[in-house]
Design a protein that fits this description.
By secondary structure, the chain is α+β, with helices and mostly antiparallel strands. It is built from two helices and two strands, in the order αβαβ. It has one domain. β1, α2 and β2 form a beta-alpha-beta unit. The protein is globular, with a radius of gyration of 11 Å.
């Protein structure tokens, strides 16, 4: 099931990245999704990372 932008402040590219990562994971691929977004929109969009997806954040500081 694809994720959708449920809040106005979540950018379409975040939702697209999450959907691609989820689709690859569903096909059995290991996925590492990294973001530099300080607001952590990827984490908000995904909630808990599904099996096969590793989620990390690069801190710009």
């Amino acid at each position: 099931m694809p994720y959708v932008a449920y809040k106005r402040n979540i950018k379409c590219y975040v939702v697209l990245a999450v959907n691609i990562a989820t689709a690859l994971s569903a096909r059995g691929k290991k996925v590492h999704l990294t973001t530099t977004d300080p607001a952590a929109h990827v984490a908000l969009t995904m909630g808990k990372a599904p099996e096969g997806i590793q989620l990390s954040r690069v801190d710009p500081d």
